[in-house]
């Protein structure tokens, strides 16, 4: 990071978020938040924002001079929140709910720096094609969806489950880059053209 610019800490162990941030050319370190993700909030957008802030605050206490980026993704289908599946059976149940329907993916992104907090939430609507019982079983057994909200990942095998995406694709991956870039620049971190002095 050039002199005068704050360092960046990514408060997430997600390899997908790490890869997306690396693609922006922003130097950063990873410090995984140990914050409990339990909440009584039922509105998916507010829940995503709340959890992102909780993760960010736990890391910002240790790195007050850095820009701490934290994110949390929430999936909702017809008012039902779908978290990370506990096992293969629950993953199959999630896929049955999503099959042939549209659902919403909300990702809250928080940027914390020297006592200031900014948080924004991105929404993307995703439609699954109708899935057969064999497809549901195969995907759940692949294990790809076990660590992901909603029980699927759009960037790999899970892409074959999706018929339409309305909104930002990287939001479904769990790190909406339009929001990330905006928050980083607001915090004084150069991204892309600003790195090259344009």
TrEMBL record:
Q: Which cofactor does it need?
A: a divalent metal cation
Q: Which GO terms describe its biological process?
A: nucleotide metabolic process
In terms of SUPFAM superfamilies, this protein maps to:
ITPase-like (SSF52972)
Catalyses which reaction?
Answer: dTTP + H2O = dTMP + diphosphate + H(+); UTP + H2O = UMP + diphosphate + H(+)
Q: What is its EC number?
A: 3.6.1.9
Residues the record marks as active site: 72
- Report the InterPro entries cross-referenced here: ITPase-like_fam, Maf-like
Q: What keywords tag this UniProt record?
A: Cytoplasm, Hydrolase, Nucleotide metabolism
Q: Where is this site: Important for substrate specificity?
A: 16, 73, 155
Give the UniProt subcellular location, in the record's own words. Cytoplasm
Q: Which GO terms describe its cellular component?
A: cytoplasm
Q: Which Pfam families match?
A: Maf (PF02545)
- GO MF, one annotated term: dTTP diphosphatase activity
User: To which protein family does this belong?
Assistant: Belongs to the Maf family. YhdE subfamily.
| Protein task | Nucleoside triphosphate pyrophosphatase that hydrolyzes dTTP and UTP. May have a dual role in cell division arrest and in preventing the incorporation of modified nucleotides into cellular nucleic acids.
Q: What is this protein called?
A: dTTP/UTP pyrophosphatase
Task: Provide the species name.
Answer: Deinococcus deserti (strain DSM 17065 / CIP 109153 / LMG 22923 / VCD115)
């Amino acid at each position: 990071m050039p002199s005068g610019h704050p360092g960046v800490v990514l408060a997430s162990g997600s390899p997908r978020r790490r890869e997306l941030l690396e693609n922006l050319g922003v130097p950063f370190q990873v410090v995984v938040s140990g914050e409990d993700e339990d909440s009584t909030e039922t509105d998916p957008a507010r829940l995503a924002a709340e959890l992102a802030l909780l993760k960010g605050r736990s890391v910002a206490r240790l790195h007050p001079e850095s820009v701490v980026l934290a994110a949390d993704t929430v999936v909702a289908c017809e008012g039902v929140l779908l978290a990370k599946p506990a096992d293969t059976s629950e993953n199959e149940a999630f896929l049955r709910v999503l099959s042939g329907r549209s659902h919403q993916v909300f990702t809250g992104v928080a940027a914390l720096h020297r006592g200031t907090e900014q948080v924004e939430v991105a929404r993307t609507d995703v439609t699954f094609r109708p899935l057969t019982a064999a497809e549901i079983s195969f995907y759940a057994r692949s294990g790809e969806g076990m660590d992901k909200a909603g029980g699927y990942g759009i960037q790999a095998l899970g892409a074959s489950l999706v018929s339409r995406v309305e909104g930002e694709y990287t939001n479904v991956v769990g790190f909406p880059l339009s929001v990330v870039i905006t928050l980083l620049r607001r915090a004084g971190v150069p991204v892309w053209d600003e790195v090259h002095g344009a």
